[in-house]
Amino acid sequence: MNKVLEETIRKVQHVEKLLAIKGVGSVTIAGFIAEVGDIRRFKSPKQIQKYAGLELVENSSGKHKGRLRISKRGRRKLRKILYQVMIPLLARNKEFRTIYDYYVTRVKNPLKRRQAMIAVSCKLIRVFYAVLTKGVDYDRFKIMSDIHHERGVIAA
Question: Is 82 exposed, middle or buried (0-12, 13-18, 19+ CB in 10 A)?
Fold first, then answer.
């Protein structure tokens, strides 16, 4: 079965660049492509985040200010795939682990562990989008450039 899966996803343009990312396997890529379809129909990775139901919504009314949470209005299976890939990705990929650790330990507005996993999965969507639409290689240094932290700001 895995051989058929490998052959099928190899037909997708630039998929070998996604396979070069440590912690991302062919099952994850196949699930992502199966749920998203042709990625070129999306104008930005934000649309894919919304499609997956990972955009933030606030439950507010009148003077009541509700909490921010993900909407869960999108593809349930896509959310599940993105969440399940986080464990091996965070274990094997140093760059994504650093981003996760930054979100959890930052001094200003630290995220809970699950919230940080959602934030990192949105980052993974942006990486997948860039690789599949523009054909750029996965750049481990560019992925870290989004985090703006000074030395000493990260809590111990």
Answer: buried
Cβ neighbour number for residue 23 with a 10 Å cutoff: 19
> What was the pLDDT predicted at 152?
43
Give the confidence band of 3 by pLDDT, cuts at 50, 70, 90: confident
Which segments of the chain does DSSP mark as H helices, in order?
Answer: 2-9, 15-19, 26-36, 45-52, 76-92, 94-105, 113-134, 140-144
What type of residue is 146? D
Q: Which of 109, 114, 110, 108 is nearest to 90 (CA)?
A: 114
| Helices 26-36 & 76-92 angle (0-180, nearest 10) | 150
Residue 44 has pLDDT above 60, yes or no: yes
* Nearest alpha carbon to residue 56 among 46, 70, 72: 70
Could you give the CA distance from residue 113 to residue 105 in angstroms, rounded to a whole number?
A: 10
Read off the pTM.
0.85
Place of tokens 């343009």: 13
- Reduce the secondary structure of 67-91 to three states and give it as a string: CEEECCCCCHHHHHHHHHHHHHHHH
